[in-house]
Predict the 3D structure of the following.
Amino acid sequence: MGWPRAPSKRLAPSMVRFFNADGLLFPWPSPGLTDPRERLHVAPMTSQDDTSPAQGEFEGDLEAGLPQGNDLMADLEADVLKWKELAVRTAADLDNFRKRSAREREEAMRYANQGLLEDLLPVLDNFEMGMMAAAKDQGSMIFIGMDMVRRQFNDFLAGQGVTEIVAEGKAFDPKIHEAVSQEVQEGAADDTVIRVVRRGFMLRDRLLRPASVVVAKAATGEEGE
C-alpha cells in the first residue's frame, strides 16, 4: 500500500491565463492540444491586493486633483453663499410679483365698468337736453317722470364711483378741463372757468371725461373801448 498522494493544487480557469511562446494570449482549452504545458506558459493572475505602478500613478494623480482641506471647505462655503443669495432674490421677486398681481387685480375690479360708463355719458347728455326742452312746463307729468329718471341715473353713477367735476368759477386745469372758447367777462380773473358747456366726470381717482368749459381772458385795449 503506497503513501497517500497529496491533492494537487489546481487553479480555477478564471485565475489563469495562457500565453504561447510568442507571448500572445492563447485560448484554453483549444482543440488539437494534448498537453498544454508543453506549448503554453501559465501566468497566474495577480490578486486584487496587488497594485500595478500605472494604477498607483493614476490614483496619485486623482488624489492630487481633488481639493484638500481648507480649499474644499472654502468652495463649499462659497457655494452655500451663492445659493443663499439666489434664494433671497427669488423670494423677493416672488413677493413683488404677488403684490403687483394683487394691485392689478384690484384696479381691474375698480375700473371694470369704465368702458360702459364712458358709453353711457353721451346718453345722459342727450337726456338732459330733452329735459331742458320739457322744463318749460315743469308741472307736466312728462317733466316729472324725466326728472325721476335723471335722479336714478345720477344715483347709479354715484354707486359706480362716478363724481361730477366742479368746474365753474375754478381756475382752468388742463388735466380735467377742456377749453372750447375764451370770453371776456367783467369781474372774472384770467384763465377762470366762466361756463360749463358739457359736464365732466371722474371715476374714483381716474378721469372719465374732461369738462368742456369756456374760459375767461383778459380784455385788450380795443375790447375795453
